[in-house]
Amino acid sequence: MTEGFDTDMLWDEFHRLVNMNSEELRVHLLADASDEDGFPSDPDLGIDELGRGVLHVLGKRKGDLTKADIDVMRQVVNLVENLGDRTDDESRRELMSVGHDPLRG
Fold it and tell me: CA 8, CA 12: separation in Å to the nearest integer?
């Protein structure tokens, strides 16, 4: 799927699919990481690793991408392509954890 993409194409596709801004994603990840017991004691607050990677990429310019950032973008594009715009609770939560809200047009 994205193996043939060059960085420019991958960047464009990633930003087309990630339709939540960084603040919306941060709020979602923090809310999802907390439960009735509150936040866990680890320094990452229980936030999904891929979601943290998306936040990191959203804060960068294309020229500053690392190999790890490109891997994150590929994972996100593949996940969104595989799940499509499914809106059942579990799929929507998974998609939103990488910045894609399937209910947005």
Answer: 6
